[in-house]
Amino acid sequence: MNVDPVFDDAPVGYIVADSRGVIQRVNAAFLSWTGYEASALVSVRRVQELLSAGSRIYFETYVAPLMALQDAVNDISLTFESTRNAHQIYTVGAAKRHGDRGSATAEVWFVLVNASGRQHFESEALRVRLRLERLQRLASALATSVTVADVASAALAEILDGVKGDHGFVASIVSDRLRVIEEQGKALPRGAGTSALLLDHFPEITETIHTGAAAFIESRGDGADDRLGLRIDGVAATRLAAIPLVAGGRTHGVLCVASMTRAGFDADERSFLLLFAELAAQSLQSAKLHDEVAKRAREASFIARLSNALDDVVSFEARCQQLVDLVVPELADYATVENPTHELRVVAVGHRDPDMLATLRELRTTVQITGSQPHSLARALASREPQVLVEIPPEMYDQYDLGSRKRALLTELAPRSYVGLPMFARGTLVGTLMLVMAESNRRFELADVPHLTDIANRAAVSLENARLYDHERFVAGSFQRELLGRELPQDDRLCLRAMYQAGGELVDIGGDYFDAFFVSADRIALAVGDVVGKGIPAATVMSQLRTALRAFALEGNGPAETLNRLDGFVNSIPGADCSSVVYAELDLRTNQLVYACAGHPPPLLISEDREALALWDGRSSLLGTAQPMARSESRVQVLVGSTLIMYTDGLVEARERSIDEGIAELIDVLRGEPSIDLEALVAKMKVSDVQRDDICVLAVTPRTPSGGGIADSVSPAK
Amino acid sequence: MSDTGVPLTITPSSDGIVVSGEVDASTVASLVRFITPLPGESGAVTVDMSGVSFMDSSGLRALVDAHREAERSLRRLIITNPSRVVVRLVDLSGLGDVLHVSQEG
Q: Smallest CA–CA separation between B13 and chain A, in Å?
């Protein structure tokens, strides 16, 4: 064969084939591209047979029919299989028939340019375009993600898709540990925890947060490397990438992707992962700031709600319950307030599942707080520091020396995370606040402690105030009971009843008083008085006045003279003047009543047949304001079965009702029900929800003595 | 302000003060400030009580204290235009013979 330099040495490939495609001639350029010997082709192979599968279809459906129609086809692109394994030659060119169509000597000439370099460029361009699109999608997804959880979710979805991962997760650094905040992948439907498994299995993942460098772990593919023995759907994971999420000079977490389909990450995928991780880290950083600000706002709002809720109620126990009700379930699955120095040790309990309340109460009531277990409430009290157990593995229940019953209660409650907070106010132990996470699967973090401590401190002050208030109320109540609650004299010749109710909301103590005592065997003294003012100052004056009244009455002065003497006395007691009082003596032999009123509302007399009489005589002015020795007194007969009612103005007077209207109403009530219970009487007379003034009522009903004989001898002369 | 929200209002007049609203333990301190010591150097001091809708014994005591101070300094404290509530309270407390109450301004 003659050598034709134009044919053989040309920088293009030439193939000349017969009408069936059998190669007749081929040049050196084509042979060098494909690696064939000329002898292996000429008269042996057809052009179609050298093509890749795709090009063969293209050849038969596009090139061959066009050649049949028009004898020439420009701008064709054919990919030839080379003799080297998995190597293809991408060509572009043209074909032209030489000679008459149908003639046996007709030839088809192919002129081909090796465009393999360009094809690589084109596919690269396509890849870059895809990656840019993906990058754009990720950027816009991240732009609309505000919280850390949103960012992790958006980034993971795009990255898993981008590198064809089967499972991926984002873990954030919380309290110096990696905490999985988002996991995705086909393994998930069979239960979360794949991520935790990977974290356990590959310390390399955790190491990346210290080294700051990405780790790519790849299976050798021979099955010998069983560290990548993680199986999903029975297929072993073959590759794993762990990339630290670094932004703003800080490592915020780790992005991890695992796959079981391919042997490794190529350079392209690695650079893709690194780039995406960088983007995700930046978003994560701002999302963390956002989450932090949102958390602060929630915390501030919680503290505000706490203060309001605690102020809503007054007593110590009620405030403890408010505290527990507020923290459950928002901050804990269950909580208790306990006071180890108090006889009612467990003051309040709360559980998100109301059915568990009894269990919780039983456990806390029987468990000893004196133990030395780590993190116990006892430890919290001793150290005055919050005790935190981020994770309570169930095995830990066994460390406590519990009986089988308590062990069962504990298992039922299933605590998983715990904070014990001492509550001290002004150096005084008020109690302990125990917060526990159970079924919600939430955990306390060390980062939560400042907020929880803040809550405990705020609550402590409020609880301490309530405790002091309870104490003051108790003392005041005891004081008043001591002053007023001396037992009324027992005598079968009469029925004596009395009641006292302090006005205002805060202190059960005031300036109203009553007294009943025998001045002689047959004379009973009855007094109801009202000191100006309220609270402890008024009560102090009241007690002195009451004692003085007793002293003057017991001298046998009689009502008017007793008041005259009290006039002298009140001038020596600051705050005692302008007090009002009604003082009466009832002779049980004659049932004659002698009474004197110093500026006080009139006593009422209700007969057995329900006739009412207001005792408007025997009046003089308020104590301390009368002319010397000017008091007067009056007399009235009290029939057996009649009721004498003495009271203070709180019973009849209010802003909504004048004193005369009040007296008229009182008469109505008593006529309707002369023996009405005094509590019921007070309730009936009430005109407003707010009782401002103290109320004091004393009721006396002379009756036929049960002992024989006396009744006859004391029958009053009418 | 009393705890119902009806304020105690005290305004000076040519020869004393005009009181209206509620006089009770929570508001009486204002009244005491206006009449202790008595306004002016000499002569009568009038306390116009036409607008008093409620008064309790703490109000009475303030008036009694001011009345006593007036007597010590040879002056007079006169309650003028007492409202029904004031009239009734003065009556009931027996202070009608002690305090000077005038129905005319």
A: 27
Touching check for A598 and chain B: CB below 8 Å? yes
HEC sequence for chain B: CCCCCCCCEEEEECCEEEEEEEECCCCHHHHHHHHCCCCCCCCEEEEEEEEEEEECHHHHHHHHHHHHHHHHCCCEEEEECCCHHHHHHHHHCCHHHCCEEECCC
pLDDT in tens, A433-481: 999 999 887 888 888 899 999 999 999 999 988 888 877 777 766 766 6
Does the pTM exceed 0.90? no
Helices (H), A313-448: 316-327, 357-366, 377-383, 404-413
Residues of A in Cβ contact (< 8 Å) with B90: none
Query: Whole-angstrom Cα distance, residue A455 to residue A322?
Result: 13
The answer to whether the CB atoms of B4 and A601 lie below 8 A apart is: no
Question: What does the buried/exposed string (b/e) look like for A464-476 if buried means 16 or more CB atoms within 10 Å of the residue's CB?
Answer: bbbbebbeebeeb
Closest CA to A245 of A182, A300, A308: A182
DSSP assignment of A457-490 equals HHHHHHHHHHHHHHHHHHHHHHHHHHHH-SPPPP
Nearest CB to B88; choose among A532, A659, A693: A659
- Flag if A599 and B58 touch (Cβ within 8 Å): no
From B54's Cα to the closest Cα of chain A, the distance in A is: 6
Phi, psi of A26 (to 5 degrees): -150, 145
DSSP code, position A63: I
Instruction: Name A187's Cβ contacts closer than 8 Å, sequence gap at least 6.
Output: A166, A167, A194, A232, A233
Q: Which of A622, A602, A621 is nearest to A613 (CA)?
A: A602
Whether A625 has its CB under 8 Å from any CB of chain B: the answer is yes
ipTM greater than 0.85: yes
Edge-to-edge order in the sheet of strand A604-606: A494-501, A695-702, A643-647, A604-606, A612-614
B89 contacts in A (CB within 8 Å)?
A: 659
Give every CB contact of residue A362 below 8 A, 6+ residues apart in sequence.
A409
- Whether residue A580 lies within 8 A of chain B, CB to CB, comes out as yes
